[in-house]
Amino acid sequence: MINLIDIEETTAETAEAAYADWSRTQDPEVLKVVERAAWHMADKYGSTRTIELDDAVQEGLILVATSRRLGECLDDPELGLGVLYHRLVQLLTTKVRTEAKHRSRATSYEVITGAAA
């Protein structure tokens, strides 16, 4: 079954935001999982300066509130917090790798202007 929403009648800016459940981010156990995943990401990608701990926490909270795939982990007791952590790290890794790829292709302003010499 397809759920259609009328974006015109909601205050959400995107369809994902219309489905967001921010109450999930208030659970202390979920917050621990988000923080643990954020530490993992900041540690793994810290040397490339791709993501910092605070940014990883914020991204994690947004994903928990907006991702149906992560919401399944909280709604289905058989999946639980372990699967939530695994899926959250996967989603954050995809997001960080994409950003890192875009950064590696970018040329810095200093190089363009010749100020890097």
- The geometry reads as elongated
Q: What about the largest sheet?
A: none
Task: Tally the beta strands.
Answer: 0
Helical coverage, percent range: 55-70%
- Whole-number mean pLDDT: 81
Q: Structural class from helices and strands?
A: mainly alpha
Oligomer: single chain
Radius of gyration: 18 Å
Strand content: under 5%
Order of helices and strands: HHHHHH
Termini, distance in Å?
Answer: 60 Å
Overview in brief:
This protein is an all-alpha fold. Helix content is 64%, strand content 0%.
Architecture overview:
The protein is built from six helices and no strands. By secondary structure, the chain is mainly alpha-helical. α2 packs parallel to α5 and α4 runs antiparallel to α5. The mean pLDDT is 81.
Characteristics of this structure?
6 helices, 117 residues, mainly alpha, elongated
Write the layout of secondary structure elements.
Layout (H helix, E strand, L loop, with lengths): L14 H4 L9 H18 L7 H14 L1 H8 L4 H26 L3 H5 L4
